[in-house]
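WARN  no MSA supplied for this record, continuing single-sequence
INFO  ligand: arginine
INFO  echoing inputs
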Amino acid sequence: MKKTLFTLILLAGLITGLKAENPPDEGMWLPMFVERLNYVDMQKMGLKLTPQEIYDINHSSLKDAIVNLGGFCTAEVVSNQGLLFTNHHCSYDAIQKHSSIDHDYLTDGFWARSLEEELPNEGLTVSFLVKMDDVTSRVLEKVSPEMSESERSSAVGKAIEMLKEEESAEGKYEVSVKGFYNGNEYYRFVYEVYEDVRLVGAPPSAIGKFGGDTDNWMWPRHTGDFSIMRVYSGPDGKPAPYSKENIPLKPKHFLKISIDGVERGDYTMIWGYPGTTDRYRTSHGIQATLSEIDPAIVKVGGRILEIMKSDMDKSDEVRIKYASNYAGLANFWKNKIGEKRGLKRLDVYDKKKAIEDQFSSWVNAEESRKAIYGNALQDISDVYTAYAETKYNTKLWYLQISFFGSQMMAFPMQTQGIINILKSGQKGEELQTSLAPFYEMGTGQFKNYNPATEEKIVAAILEMYREDVPKDALPDIFNLIDKKFKGDVHLFAKKLFETSVLATEENYKAFLAKPSIKTFENDLGYKMTNSFYNSFMTQNMAVAPLGEKLKKAQRLFVDGLRKSNPEKVYYPDANSTMRVTFGQVLDYFPADAIHYDFRTYIDGIIEKEDPTNEEFIVPAKLKELYEKKDYGKWADKDGRLVVCFLSNNDITGGNSGSPILNGKGELIGLAFDGNWEAMSGDIAFEPELQRTINVDIRYVMFIIDKFANAQNLIDEIKIAQKTR
Ligand code: ARG
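INFO  complex generated
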């Protein structure tokens, strides 16, 4: 049976001439197409499962064990009771929210010893993919080449709404239709979304985030980046909001653990929900990234991080409050530093240019091609030139990072609705009832908020705007700063934090109790945010035609590129849909004469230990286990304990928490990071240098077993028959 299938697939491949010509490790493939496009390669490299065992919509298959966690990470089902593994950094926000100085789960870790002790996480969801299908022809049915981009968008939008409706089963499913290959194809995804997801276990940050931001994005790595959650269903097994009556989900499929250990060259595959890649970005885009986008993020992000860090170092309370925001921004910021460096060192601009030259000669070889694709690259170039002239990308990213890094700046956007309520003329109790959601918003806002830190951040942002944004594009709040505060942003920020009803919890609550339209409209915090927002909207409107031009040109470029090379199967960019990437366990050479082996051991944790640096503290218990070599069955064949290992799978953000599986579909680790030498990987894959960093599943199990003594979990997780 297997053999026939194999031959059939091989034949199909020959007939259509389709072959994935990239190095097999490159590409994030859609599970639905794996049988047609990748299965032969996968089998050659060591996959032992049939196509139906990995993706089947009628029977349970591997895909049923892989879930999208909250839209930002991946998790996998590892027991018949809905137990999930994901990364520590994926649960970090949840762990932070459950933490206080008295229960500092960030520092001490958290282990539920029974179902009753598991902690609910409001707003966190887990989505199971029910099925997917190709709806390209139906989405593009009413689209014609003569249409303007906005006409096209609206035709596409309408078709998508209908296609979603069709499969939603009256709201039972969440359906999304997403564009692929820059809008040349469209696929539909049907999900079942569970809303009761509880925190089960997390190691202390000294394990789950060992090496901190210093080691982040780097190899050699010694981080136990895992945490444990559980998905609950209603008593009927269906999705249900959090309730005490809910029960652990009975999943369609769960993964077994392999304790065989990994060797160089072993087959690996990673399943998950990669967020975004931009592998078809042109040389013009690379230039904008290098000269404007990355520098903007690095400057604004870096300054905000400095301010947060200095206050976090001075107070445990501030440290806990800002931990999650800080980690998120620091991660993105360091990524962009690495991206900039990688793009330069790996000559990505020249590589893109070469692809574009090839594309152009293909276009120019035939008049009919010229008519369709002839302007694409010139249009792309024109748009980027126009962006650069107006410093569009600087303005865009200054704003995005400011709103991300400054809670004060973001809050007035959320609370704007207060004005409409006040204008409606409601009074007394009726008014207070209407304002109830805003009281709640305040509780959320000020829980992880320190006014003194926020004041410094606001002043720093204003200062950077003044330095780098063209005068005529500055938000008009700067007029007020000039007139009333002699141009001094610090004086302005000080006054804002003294007077704004949105800047401190006391002011905000006092205001809600006795609200007035005038106070709100004259509020410095409200005025500042409003002014930033308005200037952004004005700029956005001005560049909208450029955006449309770019979208169209980019779509044509990708379409032409694929047609110019019909032998090659191009994979689509990541877009938060389920993908599989396959490859092998592999070392690398980061620079001339330097070799990095593919695995790290616990010995390396001890080598890195530095009790004076909070990023490199080693918990006493872990040291004790190391000294006694008490690794149990989780040790490698030579008795040593492996912590992390490398593979050449092609992943990106969103894949965090993804299972890395062996050829039998057993769990050998969790993917959690990429490596410094290939940080330009989201834009161009680097086969020689690009690696995924995984935590070995045996280290995960060792921590649960020997470090945390969580026998309840060890009993629940199933170990596959050992084969070596
Ligand atoms: N670089 C990892 C990723 O983006 C996140 C690592 C979190 N750890 C940290 N030290 N901030 O998936």
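The pocket of arginine is lined by residues 89, 209, 212-213, 216-217, 327, 330-331, 653, 656, 672-673 (CB under 6 Å).
INFO  checksum written, moving to next record
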